[in-house]
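REQUEST FORM: STRUCTURE PREDICTION
Request ID: SP-0412
Submitted by: Lab K.M.
Chain count: 1
Length (residues): 598
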Amino acid sequence: MNEGQISIILKTLPKSPGVYRFYDKDDNILYVGKAKNLKSRVSSYFRTQHNSARLRIMVKKIERIETIVTNTELEALLLENNMIKNLKPRYNMQLKDDKSYPFIAITDEPFPRIFLTRNRHIHNAEYYGPYASVRTAKSLLELMHKIFPLRTCKLNLSEKKIKNGNYKVCLEYHLKKCKGPCVGLINEIEYDHYINLARDIIKGKTKIVENFLYDKMQKEAENLNFEEAHQWKIKWEKLKSYSSRSIIVTTQENNLDAINLIENDNEAYISAIRVQNGSIVNSIIFHIEKKLNETSEELLLYAIGELYDQWDGLQPELIVPFPISFPIDNVHITVPKIGYKADLLKFCLRNAQERKTENDKRRAITDSNKYINQLLEKVKSDLHLPTLPKRIECFDNSNIQGTYPVSSCVVFIDGKPAKSEYRIFNVKTVKGINDFATMHEVVYRRYKRQTEENKPLPDLIIIDGGKGQLHSAYDALEKLGLENIPIIGIAKKLEEIYKPHDPIPLNIDKKSPTLKLIQRARDEAHRFGITHHRRLRSKDTIKTQLVDIKGIGPKTATKLLEHFGSVENIKKAKDEEIETLIGKAKLKILREALQDKD
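STATUS: Completed
RESULT:
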């Protein structure tokens, strides 16, 4: 479409709320969007220099524009949501969940049925949900069938067929799980009352049903029908037990929805919960794939549209993590800072984070190459690196009160430990405790040898320590002419990441996979160094106290220490126990030598 045609279309667009659609030259739909003012919103695509490359490409492809005017912004939001799901435009964000969530259905027929379904295909049926957990929906359904004698069959229970005696009672009737509506043993008024009470349970109004069951129990007891009273008591206790397991968020009988999200450059996880009568009665999590660098508000509004569709509207109050410039009819929008409503947002955030963690782990198993590339791209972006950090080397110093000083170097290739390339450096030139000098020595020795032997150099070096150790390591690289290798330090106390000559730490999210990878490499270097350090001390203990004894060799010394744990324990051990281990002759040598050392 040329600029002249676009200009004409933009001039004729209405200033009303509505939905717009972009098509390419082959009449394929590119994008569906909503707007408070169609003229202003659509014009902005052609008047603004966009930062997103994908958005610039999309705008170049636009050949046709269609709009639909709506009465309100909410209507535009809902229409946009339906069109995205039905048309699946290339540049719209999409829900990534590959499963359909379960609903509880109540049919619209004589003696209605209540059952679990994943498809809302029955005409005029009521649907409640969706439920994020099948287990939750099943337990709720089982509870209702245990409390109320509702039928489970699919018979057509028209008045005519019941009067004609077309049916006979089944096993459910004999088990007292059904009242036998198929043969006219319960009328529709009484049955519908049970359905209404079951509906109250689904909606979280369990107090109403508890009171009904308690009154029934009391009435039967007053009439001396103790067996019947006991049956109503069992049902009342079942419901009380179920109610106590619901998550109570407030003693106030509030009805509200809460929604929160976490996101990165490529995707978002949005968690929503529904609270009725102070209890959480439903929850759902949306996984959305970003397409055009959508804002947090756009993501939230998209999810709100989904909720409106899946939960058949919203509660009177909606809790959100930040203000949204979008009015929703008959819904009060709240951004709480403290109190139980703020706690609800934290609850949503935690659930979104858990779902993201699950999906990340699943991706790491099923598509490890893609996951590793995404991880390394994230590290590259967060640390502002020139290339992907496919090879990472991390250094850590280890000594105890200046004794046995060693430094460890661990290597990660494609985000995973390459243990065959781990190295230990026994410190040669530094006396006493001097972490700065030690770090300078081992980094210099490491990369001098790597360059001399033409071995691979790292894409990123990590130093376990603050600015002092980092600058010492950087000085060593400068001496070797390798100052272009990216190097960072991780300070122990606050887990802050520093670069050379920059006094301000990098701003990296504490939950970022970048920080987690850095911490993992640091911890591995520490573990490797400590393990070697312990081995040195163990060998030294054997050498100085046992191997110096003439007639007690390294094998005998090791056997003794492995069995008794220390020289002190050997001194305290009985002769018989030592003799069994090393023999009578060596026992005598050992006892005489240890006595001389005392």
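NOTES: The first helix runs from residue 3 to 12.
Reviewed by: T.R.
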